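User: Just a sanity check before I run the rest of the batch. Below are the structure tokens for the first item. I only need the designed sequence back.
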């Protein structure tokens, strides 16, 4: 189906990543994986921030990060959007909407 995970590139931050095989896309699997990864990052690993990014043409991945409440922070040198979410933002979303 694909793979996902968290990469500890920066102290105190994790970078979320996921890739879903074409046959399984548009079924909500990336969102489900990303939700569990954020839960782990904030509830178990206790990091204050999670970062993410995607290719500038990958609209589906962009939408997944938006659905999770991640905020577009800036763009990398290739024009790809970079996102973040803090533990406080995550807790507010999960407490208020029960979406994650």
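Assistant: Here's the designed sequence for the first item:
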């Amino acid at each position: 189906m694909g793979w996902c995970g968290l990469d500890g590139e920066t102290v105190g931050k994790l970078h979320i990543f996921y890739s879903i095989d074409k046959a399984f896309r548009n079924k909500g699997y990336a969102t489900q994986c990303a939700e569990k990864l954020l839960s782990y990052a904030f509830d178990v690993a206790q990091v204050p921030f999670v970062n993410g990014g995607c290719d500038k043409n990958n609209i589906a991945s962009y939408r997944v990060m938006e659905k999770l409440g991640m905020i577009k922070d800036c763009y990398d040198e290739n024009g790809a959007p970079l996102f973040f979410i803090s533990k406080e933002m995550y807790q507010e979303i999960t407490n208020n909407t029960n979406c994650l």
